[in-house]
């Protein structure tokens, strides 16, 4: 992304620095140009409760480690700065304590540690993000959709100026958009972003969401990044595409293994599939996520893998003329309520752990897993993912893999905010929970 103003002769006067907390909320501090050096060096103060703010606009999921005592510092990374408009720039932030040490609950810092561990193992990753969202009225209500058809050109032209401005603002910010198109749901769009190294890819997704939200405001509408904006409508995913390399050689193609994978590539896919039940709480752990995690939603509701299988939690896109970037693995279970940094870290951690332990690749699933009998799924080592958020959070809490990858403080914070959602809203219906949190993750 651009590290200076994209407008010649214009100096930005305001910088907005953001972090994404365990509940998937984007939080911010804004400074004038004169304070940017301080924001980037010693940082700006923030309570530890930033890691415990919840999606119900004011709740705090206190823990033994996160309370009213203490202070931390947010430092922005100016190397990742992006231009939003002639006088406004954005930069991602990370948490440090008052002695300058990284805060273990910090999502971006956690991903940095995981990427460093990959490098120590001789591995490099590229990550590409997809983001689905729904345009809604300023109050979160439905917009007219009489002309809408799934993937229809009418939807693109109905919101033509919105689409044009999003693409133009992304170009200004250095966000590389590979495609933006109408999706299946009414007033739903999907944006695909260019693969980058894991931290840069996560940063790019954060600023893309900010851009989409700002353009929508200019048009008098809003954007829902909820996993299920309307209970009777389609869900929104935030799929991640992962490529792994050792000594610049791809692991998911060029090998003699299944679907052209190398031995390490098979182990990496096996590691992700085996850990998928544990990963759910990080990838799709919000109280709304269970409304999407169902068969038939293309949400990857089964822990299995398959080449181009959109109902598998892990979809392999094989190398070939139609895949100029080469083979990659798409993790479909992720939704927009997830913290993108934690989600990427968790997936990478499971892939590397699969390589380390030479995990056995389950059989490829070549059909819709929902059409198999329970016995057939058991024979193929296919497990259904849960839509019971209480069970998902308990599995996350008990996961040795996640605690090894993310660290106890980060997992405890993730568990705390999601458990708060479950206990605070125990008797919700699909309609009431979708309505209440439609704009919870909007920017």
UniProtKB/TrEMBL annotation:
State if Ligase is listed as a keyword: yes
What positions does the domain GS catalytic occupy?
107-443
GO MF, one term, reads: glutamine synthetase activity
**Would I find Ligase among this entry's keywords?**
yes
Q: Which domain of life is it from?
A: Bacteria
Gene3D superfamilies per UniProt = Glutamine synthetase, N-terminal domain, Glutamine synthetase/guanido kinase, catalytic domain
| Gene Ontology BP terms | glutamine biosynthetic process
What keywords does the record list, in alphabetical order? Ligase
The similarity comment for this entry is:
Belongs to the glutamine synthetase family.
Q: What is this protein called?
A: Glutamine synthetase I
Species of origin reads: Gordonia rhizosphera NBRC 16068
């Amino acid at each position: 992304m651009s590290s200076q103003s994209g407008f010649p002769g214009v100096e930005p006067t305001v910088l907005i620095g953001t972090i994404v907390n365990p509940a998937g909320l984007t939080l911010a501090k804004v400074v004038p140009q004169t304070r940017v050096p301080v924001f980037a060096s010693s940082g700006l103060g923030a309570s530890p409760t930033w890691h415990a703010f919840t999606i119900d606009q004011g709740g705090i999921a206190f823990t033994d480690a996160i309370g009213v005592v203490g202070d931390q510092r947010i430092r922005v990374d100016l190397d990742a700065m992006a231009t939003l408009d002639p006088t406004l720039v954005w930069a991602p932030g990370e948490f440090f304590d008052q002695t300058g040490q990284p805060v273990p609950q910090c999502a971006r810092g956690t991903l940095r540690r995981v990427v460093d561990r990959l490098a120590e193992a001789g591995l490099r990753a590229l990550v590409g993000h997809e983001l689905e969202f729904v345009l809604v009225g300023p109050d979160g209500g439905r917009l007219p959709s009489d002309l809408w058809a799934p993937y229809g050109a009418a939807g693109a032209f109905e919101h033509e100026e919105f689409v044009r401005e999003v693409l133009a603002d992304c170009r200004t910010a250095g966000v590389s958009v590979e495609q933006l198109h109408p999706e299946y749901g009414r007033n739903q769009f999907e944006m695909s972003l260019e693969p980058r190294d894991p931290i840069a890819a996560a940063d790019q997704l954060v600023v893309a969401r900010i851009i989409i939200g700002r353009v929508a405001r200019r048009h008098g509408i809003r954007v829902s990044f909820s996993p299920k904006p309307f209970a009777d409508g389609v869900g929104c995913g935030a799929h991640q595409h992962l490529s792994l390399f050792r000594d610049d050689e791809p692991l998911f193609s060029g090998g003699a293994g299944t679907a052209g994978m190398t031995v390490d590539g098979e182990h990496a896919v096996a590691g992700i599939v085996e850990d998928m039940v544990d990963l759910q709480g990080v990838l799709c752990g919000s109280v709304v996520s269970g409304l999407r995690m169902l068969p038939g939603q293309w949400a990857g509701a089964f822990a299995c893998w398959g080449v181009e299988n959109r109902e598998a939690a892990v979809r392999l896109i094989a190398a070939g003329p139609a895949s100029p970037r080469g083979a990659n693995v798409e993790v479909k279970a992720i939704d927009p309520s997830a913290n993108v940094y934690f989600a990427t870290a968790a997936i990478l951690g499971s892939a590397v752990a699969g390589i380390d332990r030479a995990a056995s690749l389950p059989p490829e699933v070549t059909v819709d897993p929902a059409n198999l009998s329970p016995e057939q799924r058991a024979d193929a080592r296919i497990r259904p993912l849960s839509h019971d958020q209480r069970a998902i959070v308990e599995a996350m809490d008990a996961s040795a893999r996640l605690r090894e990858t993310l660290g106890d403080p980060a997992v405890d914070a993730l568990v705390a905010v999601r458990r708060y959602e479950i206990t605070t809203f125990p008797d919700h219906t699909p309609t009431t929970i979708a309505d209440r949190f439609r704009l919870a993750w909007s920017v």
